[in-house]
Amino acid sequence: MRLHVTYAGGTIGMVDSPEGLRPGADLQGWFGSQLEGIELASNISMSTLDPLIDSSQATPEDWQAIIDDINAHAEEADAFLVLHGTDTMAYTSAALSFALANLGKPVVVTGSQYPLGVVGSDASANVTGALRAAISRHARGVMLFFGHKLLAGNRATKTSSWAFRGFESPSVSPMARTGAPWRWYGAPSPGTGWQAPGAYTRQDVAVIDVVPGMTAARLRASITPPPDALILRTFGVGNIPADEPGFVDVLAQLAEAGVPIIVASQCYQAEVMLGHYEAGDALAKLGAIGAHDMTLEALYAKTVFLLSQGKRGEDFRRWMDLSIAGELTLQG
Fold first, then answer.
1. Nearest-CA neighbor of 31 among 51, 15, 45?
2. Would you call 303 a catalytic residue per the annotation?
3. Catalytic position from the list 86, 110, 234, 303
4. pLDDT tens, residue by residue, 69-93
5. Is 6 designated active site?
């Protein structure tokens, strides 16, 4: 078993400085010490991105840098490990899942809440757990390991900025839990895959939360100039304040301009069902696209992915309603 590690940055490799935490730890040396005496150690290669990414600063171009590194080692490695910051780890995991849907080899993304040099850090447990997941015969697709749980990479969301169990998958069960032995529960359906994906490029995708009392003027200001796509995070199963004067008119003008409106829920667990209530019927009539049960991270990454592939109009809608890499649950 040959494994390649991409060190992208994040808290795991940071050290204290007068300005706060910054990259600077000898991560490659520490990584080697974790594997000392283990047969796998001689079969591991590592790349370090330059510059390292503070994940709160990550962009689609940074997603692509990780993808490019994995693809560059696709022939020589059997599995991959990505070390990444926690702030946007779920976004990156989802993005990798679409671009690497046809890789055919497991990729595990992990990091830590504490730097590796801090006493009591979760770095060692997360890295060694991710390694074990990556080399398991049960491993499938892009996964996220954190806090003793292995999650499907495009089903994960960050739930805590401090807890060692910092990530959950609200709509599906974990793929595995650590223990003696590990408990494996299976992976989501793999999806359609994607042949020869083009590179991620930055897209103007607006993400707007609907709140009680939100006016049409505020909504209009938030989408001026018009974005490439709008992710509208609504109440419940896809409801908006449709009776608010001018609110639906603003969305209608956007739809007429050809901007896709994707409707998500603000609920931690939800299945968007446009038109199920009268308050969501206006969105259905506008031709809005339901987000099914996708996390915000998966939905945003998928929107950027499809736009980066040149998908527009009905083609964009069709792909949003299909599972590319297991990111959504298809009903009946």
1. 45
2. no
3. 86
4. 999 999 999 999 999 999 999 999 9
5. no
